[in-house]
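testing teh design pipeline on a random one, pls ignore if ur not involved
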């Protein structure tokens, strides 16, 4: 392992819905990573910016710092929002240039910005100029192709961003096409700012593989953190070249934080089922059994999920599939 990997930082990916604050608090209780980020905060036209960012609390995931992510098209509004977020204590503000949703991209934001490099530059430039803390950008390779890729990654650096995160897929690739790590390697070759590689990290082995194949500085993990919340500890052990020891007690403590937090919601059932479908994905039987049952109350669903997770861990510790 090259020595610079001792400085590799691990980021929990922003994930709208799945990665809501209760999920981020769960992961923060389990730990093993350096930073998380809010889901995108949409800045529409004619915004009342102060009210859009009022929910942001940089300490909500303490001791893991929480950055803020913005999405929008208006350079002035985004710069103002970045400034106000920094005033509220954000240590980093990121621009979302990857969201494929048509409701978002229909208005020119998210991944649509990859097709309008001049606007993308203007937004990032104004954000960097106004915001007193580091501004970063999270890009995909492109919308349908890679024609703007080199231009886009360079303008991120020229605008003054302090890091580029690359989700190594086009918008057209969606989420399931294999991530194209060659583009992460190319970004590392072309730019001086740190590159955070993202896409298809599903194990400690694939994390090390990405570092070695692309030379990227940092790693970002999204969906695997919901399937296996200990993934960051696994990667840390691999980076330090020490054996990983399963820690079910830590995992359960984190999951209990999720249950505690999610019960504060008015309608928590959808979020409980969403987490269940990820965390039980290692056992199709347990997943099906949990998701096909009907629950009268969220508490009932939580008790059932807790039992399913216990069964999963017992089976895993015995080296069986549940
Ligand atoms: C449910 C879901 C919601 C997402 N929401 C966001 C978001 O709000 N902002 C963002 O930049 N990326 C978002 N993403 C993309 C992830 O941050 C990440 O780039 C992508 O999932 C690839 O990483 P992975 O293979 O480790 O999951 C989302 C992904 C998923 C699956």
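output:
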């Amino acid at each position: 392992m090259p020595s610079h990997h001792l400085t590799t930082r691990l980021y929990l990916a922003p994930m709208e819905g799945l990665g809501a604050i209760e999920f981020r608090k769960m992961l923060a209780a389990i730990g093993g990573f350096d930073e998380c980020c809010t889901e995108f905060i949409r800045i529409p036209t004619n915004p009342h910016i102060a009210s859009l960012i009022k929910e942001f609390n940089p300490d909500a995931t303490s001791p893991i710092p929480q950055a803020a992510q913005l999405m929008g098209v208006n350079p002035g509004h985004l710069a103002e929002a970045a400034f106000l977020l920094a005033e509220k204590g954000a240590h980093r503000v990121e621009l979302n240039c990857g969201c494929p949703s048509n409701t978002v991209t229909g208005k020119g934001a998210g991944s649509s910005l990859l097709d309008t490099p001049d606007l993308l530059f203007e937004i990032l430039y104004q954000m960097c100029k106004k915001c007193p803390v580091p501004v970063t950008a999270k890009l995909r390779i492109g919308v349908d192709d890679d024609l703007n890729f080199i231009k886009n990654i360079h303008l991120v650096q020229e605008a003054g961003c302090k890091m580029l995160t690359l989700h190594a897929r086009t918008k057209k690739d969606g989420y399931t096409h294999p991530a194209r790590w060659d583009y992460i390697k190319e970004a590392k070759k072309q730019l001086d700012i740190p590159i955070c590689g993202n896409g298809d990290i599903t194990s400690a082995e694939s994390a090390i593989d990405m570092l070695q194949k692309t030379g990227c500085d940092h790693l970002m993990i999204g969906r695997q953190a919901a399937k296996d919340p200990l993934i960051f500890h696994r990667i840390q052990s691999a980076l330090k070249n020490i054996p990983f020891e399963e820690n079910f007690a830590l995992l359960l403590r984190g999951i209990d934080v999720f249950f505690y937090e999610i019960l504060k919601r008015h309608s928590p059932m959808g979020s409980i089922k969403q987490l269940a479908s990820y965390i039980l994905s290692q056992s199709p039987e347990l997943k099906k059994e949990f998701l096909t049952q009907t629950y009268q109350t969220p508490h009932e669903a939580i008790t059932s999920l807790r039992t399913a997770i216990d069964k999963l861990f017992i089976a895993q510790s015995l080296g069986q599939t549940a």
